[in-house]
Design a protein that fits this description.
165 residues, alpha+beta, five-stranded mixed barrel, 3 helices, 6 strands, 28% strand
Length: 165
């Protein structure tokens, strides 16, 4: 009588647990399945948590306790996701021009406020309320604006429409 046969008779009528086992795995088949489940659970958790970890906006580069009013000419407007950008040329008292980059919210936040892709066009005059960027850089975080026709968006209370240049 072979050893496998005697083992199957010793284990009862169901047979031996060794008869159907794959000799190449040496009992690792259940570990491989367990490892796959663990890998799947960890990968899913990482993927679901990634947008919150990497996509969270930070306003640390702006002076959130300060506000500045800018009046200038639109150089360009990029209506994009995740942030829109308004490029302005500000002319100072000494007739020196400086380009400013104004970070705005993305399309999903601007659209309900009435801001569309044609919100402003190059050459338009606009008054903008911003939180300035740290380090005296010519950039800011948009809070509100009013155009030359008097259309107000965002926190525009107290802003005057821009006059002619």
């Amino acid at each position: 009588m072979s050893r496998a046969l005697s083992a199957s008779h010793a284990d009862g009528p169901e047979g031996s647990k060794w008869i159907n086992a794959d000799p190449r795995t040496h009992g690792r088949a259940s570990m491989t399945a367990r490892a796959r489940v663990i890998r799947f659970v960890l990968s899913t958790a990482l993927l679901l948590g990634a947008p919150h970890a990497f996509g969270h906006p930070s306003y640390a580069m702006y002076l959130m306790d300060q506000e500045m009013i800018l009046v200038g000419e639109v150089k360009s407007f990029d209506y994009t996701i995740p942030h829109s950008w308004l490029q302005l040329t500000i002319t100072g008292d000494e007739e020196t021009a400086q380009d400013w980059a104004i970070e705005m919210e993305g399309v999903p936040q601007l659209f309900p406020q009435g801001i569309r892709q044609d919100y402003v066009t190059p050459g338009d005059r606009i008054t903008v309320l911003v939180h300035p960027m740290r380090g005296n850089r010519p950039a800011g975080l948009w809070q509100g604006s009013i155009d030359s026709q008097g259309r107000a968006f965002g926190r525009a209370e107290g802003l005057d429409p821009p006059g002619p240049q």
